[in-house]
Input
Amino acid sequence: MQPRLRRTIPTLGALALTLLLARAAQAGPFLQPSDELAAEAGAMLERVNQARQSAGLAPYVVNAALAQAAQGHAEEIAEFAHYSHTSRDGRKAKDRVLQAGYAAGREGLRVGENFVGRSNIDDAFGWLMGDPPHRANILDPNYREIGVGVGKISYGYIWVMDLGTYTGIDAVLAAPAAASETPLPSETPAPPPSETAVLVTALPAPFTEAPPAATPSVTVPAISTLAPATATPERLAPEPDADGKGGAPSRNLLVLALVLLVVAVALGYALFDSRRQED
Output
């Protein structure tokens, strides 16, 4: 296998996986890129990184959020023939990458974008490198990450690359590499159990529960914790009479009758006395 082909296959595979993952997580009307589009994106990435290495620059690192933003814009251009860095809804490249989640919470964000439509990769990359602003983006030493999106158009393909950097990006990119290079501590096998008899020099005394000590019984007078009853005289209900009603009304009638009898006697005596005096 030729050296160039050996370098191309892993690059194409990595970029295809990145594009597929990015599009799977993207909400919107865009379609998932086919293997054909992923291959074109991988070819553009390889050309860009070769140009950077030839200029003594570090190759771009593929970022999934940048790839998501680039793929979305490429499909919008392809679907609506909208050849602009501004989306149809007014978003700029920086807006799109931020919406995709790139450099969340980071300061010093800087974003660049190139796009070109041609029938093949050679013509497309040749035009990018021949145009000063697009060439400057590709060879900018400050940009460190990239995402490439591809859309299918009537005469070929539209390639979109979003480039990004932010304050402290070198430390962020170096952290995963440093972690992967840190050797894991080797596991030291535990020594086999020794067959030498172990002498027991001291054994703890067996635990015995001591009987409870005799405690003299003390009679404690019971103290009522209830609140004292209020001195409210109890009102007895009247005992029912033979017809089941209370007896209090019967006594009242009896007293009334006695009073009327006394009054009648007094009136009768007074009347009798007055007649006797007249005679």
